[in-house]
Design a protein that fits this description.
Elements lengths: L1 H8 L1 E4 L2 E4 L5 H44 L6 H13 L3 H13 L12 H7 L7 H12 L3 H9 L2 H7 L22 E3 L11 H10 L1 H8 L3 E12 L2 E11 L4 E7 L6 H17 L9 E6 L4 H8 L6 E7 L5 H12 L1
Parallel strand pairs: 3-8, 6-7, 7-8
Antiparallel strand pairs: 1-2, 4-5, 5-6
Helix pairs in contact: 2-3, 2-4
């Protein structure tokens, strides 16, 4: 009996480690799981760094946008950076890097997700525009660390390859973000928890009170501009419900909220606002402003003829303040099946 117990408790060597009897193959399982954890850790670090790159691009874009709006003051950008460095406790050099990053990569879709922020800090200081894609490509293909990229730049790899006729640069095929890729057909305002009966003012107030949730529903890359912007047209003051700015499209987004079915008069109102923005707020380097009309309901034929040639400049969507429950969906499906 003692011998049997000893045999049951006996351990044997497997892969250099002692493994309990009956756990053959354990070392392989252990190594596979370690590999999975390492890969997960790498993906997590990569995701964080990609978020950093996107955030720094947006910071650079916002500073440059401020400079453009106050370009009559030559020192405005430098003063903003100095103040931001103090208020946010960020090194001025880092803020200058975000501005340079945005200016070198003005279209965010051209920013490779395979490169880290530290890689980009090296690349943005290459003055020769042909060098940058060369080093980007080689960094990705050879999995260069930042230190190796820096070493290759200092060794003039590009110039040497150019002299030897070994330069082959495959420019990434990128397509600028289009407005139709940004806007939805239906927006879910269920997070507002509105009563059954509510006014247009109630809806606007609720949305403005929960701007963060509202922006999340609109989608990524939207920035808050101003609420209820006053515009003077024909001697009369009117108000745009909400002014936003979209980092990917690089333009102002004017939002109008309507608690009624879509009408063609909504388009003429928005068109006037967009023309006012083109004359008074549009800056060089931006797209023309875009209008978003969010109505309680819309008839597609009415929208089609009301917009006409304005389809790429004005978008019309519906909103829902209460989504149907699972039971309601089930009943509707059963009703359709019958």
């Amino acid at each position: 009996m003692a011998q049997i117990q000893i045999q049951k408790l006996a351990k044997k060597e497997e892969g250099g480690k002692r493994v309990e009897e009956g756990l053959e193959g354990y070392t392989e399982i252990l190594q596979d799981i370690k590999s999975l954890l390492e890969k997960a850790k790498y993906r997590a670090y990569k995701a964080v760094d990609n978020l950093k790159v996107q955030t720094y691009w947006q910071i650079g874009e916002r500073i440059v946008r401020g400079e453009l709006q106050h370009r009559e003051r030559a020192d405005y950008g430098e003063r903003v950076i100095a103040r931001l460095a103090s208020d946010l406790d960020i090194a001025k050099r880092n803020l200058h890097n975000t501005v340079r990053f945005y200016k070198v990569y003005p279209i965010v879709q051209t920013v490779s997700a395979q490169l880290s922020w530290s890689h980009f800090v090296e690349l943005i200081y290459l003055d020769n525009k042909e060098e940058r894609p060369f080093y980007e490509q080689h960094t990705i293909q050879n999995a260069w660390s930042v230190r190796e990229l820096r070493r290759q730049i200092r060794s003039n790899l590009y110039e040497r390859a150019k002299r030897e006729g070994e330069i082959t640069i495959i420019q990434p095929i990128t397509k600028a973000l289009q407005p139709e890729q940004v806007f939805k057909d239906i927006y879910n305002f269920d997070f507002l928890k509105l009563p059954e009966k509510y006014s247009e003012e109630d809806l606007k107030t609720a949305l403005l009170n929960k701007l963060e949730k509202f922006l999340q529903e609109l989608g990524s890359d939207f920035f808050i501009g101003r609420r209820e912007v006053s515009v003077l047209i024909g001697g009369n003051w009117d108000k745009v419900d909400l002014e936003l700015f979209h980092a990917g499209l690089l333009c102002y987004i004017l939002v109008e909220i309507k608690t009624e079915q879509f009408k063609h008069t909504h388009v003429s109102q928005m068109y006037s606002y967009l023309n006012w923005y083109k004359e008074h707020k549009w800056q060089e380097g931006q797209r023309p402003p875009i209008g978003l009309i969010i109505c309680k309901t819309k008839d597609e034929e009415t929208v089609h003829y009301a917009l006409g040639d304005l389809k790429r400049g004005i978008f019309v969507a519906e909103y829902k303040v209460k989504l149907p429950s699972e039971e309601e969906i089930r009943r509707r499906i059963m009703g359709l099946e019958e």
